Amino acid sequence: MKVGPSSLYAAGFTLLVVGIVLVALGGAGSGSSTSVGAVVFLGPVPLVFGSGPGAGSVALTALAIGAVMVVLIYLSILLSRKTAQP
Prior knowledge:
Largest sheet: 2 strands, antiparallel
Low-confidence stretches: none
């Protein structure tokens, strides 16, 4: 079975939507205080924002995860270029 880029994009988008819905449902069902934090990368500039009592630690965790993802993508590109060259 061959998997094309369009099916991978569709799977990624579906997982993203499911994750957002699960987070929203989890926050709406609890009566306790909830902290939210996120990091959005605009090119090389990270925008960090959050809300709630533990927003700082949640935002720092999101920033660390985002940084690891950027490094992994960079390493993946480097390895694919090395294997593509004869």
